[in-house]
């Protein structure tokens, strides 16, 4: 290989490391922000992600990288937040029943994504 090709490969490798680092940083930041009580949409706005689903995915990736004991503690906190949100959702009389059901289904999917596995 030529020296020029070696330099190009080195630059690409560095770019991949930076991208991976940024990716992991976003995941970690999503976990911290969520643990502070931020909504997934709020996290997406702060981290410039492509929406609440991307923030939720980042949170879950970071969660799964934590030690098991910490995962359990973080899951418990997240489940408590989701339970509180579901309670508030059930009490909303300003939304149509169909909308409440739709949102509760979304909360169930979020709960299910927290399962160990």
Run of helices and strands = HHHHH
Report the portion of residues in β strands.
under 5%
The Rg value, from CA coordinates, equals: 19 Å
Mean pLDDT: 85
Morphology = elongated
Output the number of helix runs: 5
Low-confidence stretches: none
Number of domains: 2
Query: What's the number of extended β-strand segments?
Result: 0
Largest sheet: none
In which range does the helix fraction lie?
Answer: over 70%
**Strand-pairing-aware structural class:** mainly alpha
**N/C terminus separation:** 44 Å
Explain this structure to me?
With 117 residues, the chain is mainly α. The protein has 2 domains: 1-65, no CATH class; 68-117. The chain is 80% helix and 0% strand. The protein is built from 5 helices and no strands. The protein has helices at 3-35, 40-47, 52-64, 68-90, 97-113. α1 crosses α3 (52-64) and α4 (68-90) packs antiparallel against α5 (97-113). The mean pLDDT is 85.
